[in-house]
Amino acid sequence: MAHCNTIFSQILKLVPRHEFETLANQHHSGRSFRTASRWSQFVTLAMAQLSGRNSLRDIVENMSAQAHRLYHLGSAKLTRSNLSRINEDKPYTLYEALFGKLLARCQGMAPGHNFRFKNPLYSLDASTIDLCLSVFPWADFRSTKGAIKLHVGLNHKGYLPEFVTVTTGKTADITVGRTLEFPQGSMVIIDRGYNDTAWFNQLTEKGIFFVTRIKSDAKYRVVCRREVLKNKGLSCDQTIEFTGIQTAKKCPIQLRRIGYRDPETGKHYVFLTNNFKLAAKTIADIYKARWQIELFFKWIKQNLKIKSFIGTSKNAVMTQIWIALCVYLLLAFIKFQSKLNKSMQQILRLLQLNLFEKRDLFALLRGDPLHDKRYSTHQLVLV
User: Fold this and answer.
1) Are strands 209-213 and 268-273 parallel, antiparallel or unpaired?
2) What pLDDT is recorded for position 380?
């Protein structure tokens, strides 16, 4: 039987070492390392994310148990003090840049979204991560509470977090939304937290479509009405103009208002969009697809370590978050390349149980028996 490296080693091969070292040199500050390195930091914290380790002691002890395998991973054994110091001092921007490299690789393999139209489709939302203000004084949110906010623009092509920003908990969702540069022709799904008529006008001028829910107190007049298929849950399809003094100035364009009653819940929704070509039912289905970003936040909070932190400085927290997001992309890449009908959670659970086993990664995911020699030589292919 051909030799196989450990499952963890095969995962790390998705991060070309020369690319990583180039980024590490670009994002270095302070004195040079003696025995530790940024690669050792990444290997250690990626292992912690994949295996669900909760503390510095837990992480270091787990790596010590695998000390005989660290050489083959190109990593040095880090003490608690070494790992803590690197997390505190060395810029987290290295892993933000690494995230960009991994994202580009995943985008080339991601399957398309589930709609017939070819426009890129994004869901935009933010999730708050609560922190203890006395332990994380830099994360000021309220008088007795600390928090940071993870803003994500999720591309429905492969459900990849294409736009990611981490801010303080006080930052409004729309503040980050205005800074994002979506490709022309994109369709962006947003909730009422991003309701800004001036931004709606800017998106329209840039050739970007949006779907949101209209505010209940919005003032407008109906320019024209279109017939709707009531048996599909539609109640109205109108062209409107804002009539409020300020909103009319900020958004002087005509928009589309669509009423829809969900047959499953009986709840009535009223959507607002600047897209007049797609069917009204398609607009309703597009907004329903926004649920995918809620599932993304739920998944990373339940399966990766971004709610409890092993360091207290801003740099340490940001390092942990960006490495968690890098691990998410590694899992996504494996899912795309394996072409198996397995969820991300199923893949993660298999990896957790077999992280340091010496067998072929894809044979493990397929469930091939250990004695089957046919699948022992399959290797990860970088594209």
Assistant:
1) antiparallel
2) 52
Mapped onto helix, strand or coil, the DSSP state of residue 354 is helix
Residue 204 confidence (pLDDT) above 70 = yes
Q: Please give the single-letter amino acid code of residue 86.
A: I
User: Side chain identity at 279, as an amino acid letter?
Assistant: A
The pair of structure tokens assigned to 88 is 């505190």
Supply the pTM of this predicted model. 0.92
- In one letter, which amino acid is 356? F
For residues 328 and 340, what is the distance between their CA atoms, to the nearest angstrom? Answer: 17
Q: Give backbone dihedrals phi and psi of 96, rounded to 5 degrees, phi first.
A: -65, -40
Q: Percent of the chain scored above 70 by pLDDT? A: 96
Q: Counting Cβ atoms within 10 Å, is residue 217 exposed (0-12), middle (13-18) or buried (19+)?
A: exposed
Rg (CA), the chain: 24
Helices first, then strands: H and E counts in the chain: 15, 10
Query: Which helix (DSSP H) or strand (DSSP E) does residue 133 occupy?
Result: none
Question: Is 99:150 a contact under the CB 8 Å cutoff?
Answer: no
DSSP character string of 91-127: -THHHHHHHHHHHHHHHTTPPP-SSSS-S-EEEEEEE
The pLDDT, as a whole number, for residue 254 is: 97
pLDDT over 90 at 383, yes or no: no
Nearest to 183 by CA among 154, 206, 157: 206
d(CA 184, CA 310): 40
The residue behind tokens 């109906």 is 222
Quickly state the pLDDT bin for 376 (edges 50, 70, 90). very low
**pLDDT tens by residue, 60-70:** 998 888 888 88
